[in-house]
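Workshop exercise sheet. Pairs work together: one partner reads the sequence aloud, the other fills in the structure field after running the prediction. Swap roles for the next sheet.
Pair: D.N. / O.F.
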Amino acid sequence: MLKGMKRFLGVFMTAVICISACPVAVLAAPTVNQQQVQAKIAEIAKQYPHGSFFSKNGQACGHGQDKSCSNCNSVNIAKQNGKAWASKEGSSWTCLGFTKYVYHEVFGVGLGSAISGTVTASIVGDGPSTSYETYKNAKPGDVIYFRNEKSRTYVNSKGKTVERSSGHFGIFISADETGVTIYHSNVSKANRVEYRKYDYKTDASYLWKYVTIRHANNYISHVCSQFTDLGVCTECHQQYTLTNVQTGMTIPATAAKADGAMHSSPYGAAAVTGRLKAGKTYTVVQRATNAFGYTWYQVKDVNDKNNLKWVVGEYLNVHKCSEFDKDGKCKTCKTQFQLKDQKTLNVIMMATKNDGAMHKTPYGEGEINGRLVGQQYYLVTGSAVNGYGNLWYLVRDTDGTDKWVVADYLKSVSGSPTAVTMIKNVKVKNITTNEARVTGQIKYAGTKPAQVGLRVGTSKNNLAVVAIENLNHSKNPFDIWYDVSADTKINLKQDTRYYYQFFVMANGKLVPGPIDTFKTESYENNYGAVKQVTAPAQTTPKPTTLENKTTTTTKPVTTIPNNSAASATQSSSVNIKATSAKNVTQTNAVVYGNASYTGTKPTEVGLYIGTSQSNMKLVASDPINHSKNPFDIWYDLNQEAGMKLQPGTTYYYKLYATVNGTKQFSNTVSFTTAAAAAPVTAKTTGVKNVTATNAVVCGSVSYTGARPTKAGLYFGTNRNGMRAVASDTISHNKNPFDIWYDLNQEANQKLTSGTTYYYQFYVVQNGVTYTSNIASFNAK
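Structure field:
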């Protein structure tokens, strides 16, 4: 911490020794360095890659945090994977279960029953989740906890300060000025694993608002770069973890160097345990790269079959796989070939071979699990090159599953025919934070289109095919619609603008329709609480086949007599008024209003709010299922509208009531939240040991939010002309803490007898500098 703090280090170390002496606080787990952490995470990511599901059956569970579900119970998964620690870790589900699983595998210790991790981890970051400043001290493998509340603690009903647990958990991988890379589960879909970078701006909805980052206490957080001849880091003394490891091999190899040395480990300085014999064949069981970047092979010694020995790559002629079985394993050495040039695609292609085989693996010998229909269009989701060097495509079959097809059986499509006379976007309905129904109508002349589908993207120039299906009816014109998340393999994100386009495949060509747009609701706008008991909304199940889904719709014209229900509609009115905001704090308020009506009862009330009258957003709505008239309306903005207000900010709000399908709005009322206190308070507390040439100036600092990064001293003989004479990095977590400087030794200032001096402390937090009051003293 600060230089001046060295005076009480003895007391502090005594306290540390005292704490360390307590058995409950001692960690038995061995230390691990950053290279070992990254290697272990890479190993886990092979078992649970991006897009997989963290569950026993490898599929999503249809629930939230259901603690009765054995499929996604982390202990059950650990037991299934043969982890010895499985029964020692507390059961967890969804995102927390995956985080505990990775953490225990990497560090050898559990997070415990509480995510606070007070025994196994310490906090290295706590602040806004979309700021690089919060992540800059994090290391790969750290535990991250996202939440919407600024404080990670709260006072419970018993008056005890406890850690929050509602939010989202994951494993930190890396961060820079543009975004953060996370490895976590229960993302987009239940139990779904994601390993990717999230942009601070475009992916903010995934990052919540605030994050706490915890660092394992047995983590040596540096990247090993200097090694001994045996691969031991010269700084942390940890053995380098081999990279590019491939195990389970049975590849034949012959000696390229007669009498070449065989070693006990993959290093030239390791003990020589044997010699290669000219012309002899060995069996390679493992391949790896050592700390110096050299490839080594572990082989079975022909003279000692039970003894595995390491040989540098240049000393062996290793068999190269050239013939493969149906699963892509070499027929000679049985090693699984790793596909090359794997790509994710989203294109339409036409089948050129009728009855062409579709395979389970990208090999002609692979199990046939489908057949192409000639001249039909297919969605291609990926491609890869197999062991023979042949290109194969991953194709979405009509049953919704992806299957491998050799490239010779497919061709690209483009262009526009004249058969389609109209593709019309009708309306986007049922928009929520993660769903929307897009509807349209198609009309054609001549040949009936073979297929119809939908393209969606976040920009007009980046639309991807998300659905395509056969047209198995003859209606003309016909309606078409998709519930975007439910009917496709994409997941909409909250508060995001999307563009969509219907298309048809006709006469061998893709015909696109017009591009339209919609925006999903934000979480804040969708969390309005219901004040009355509300019956669940009734929805009509959507047929799954296109035959039922695409229908001709004709709306009959209905004439309503003057003495019918229309009269009641015309005579209905509602008077709605916004009155005031009460209980206004820095971050919350309760807004009030009332409504009265004649005729038809309103069906819904709600609230619009914003920081300007021209930019108010819908943040809450409630059905009216009572018969009170008049009635009061109110919303607690934190609890019932999902909002957290900003201190010292003026907000405008208006209420509405819906009657006969039309919203009637109230007047607009404004209020201003209380101003925020400065997050850092620094003050001078006095001067000690004043002489003719020296003095010790003292102060104190307290703060809220992120830990300050730097503190220092302004000093001079004029209160308006002080300059910075000392600064120190803050590397502790004490709050509040004392600060002082010996002007001779720590600020390089020599005083003049009888002179008046002025001083002021400063503290930097999140790039903002906060200063204390100015104090003065006279040198003797």
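Discussion prompt: Helices lie at 9-20, 34-47, 74-80, 94-107, 132-135, 484-487, 546-549, 565-571. What would you look at next?
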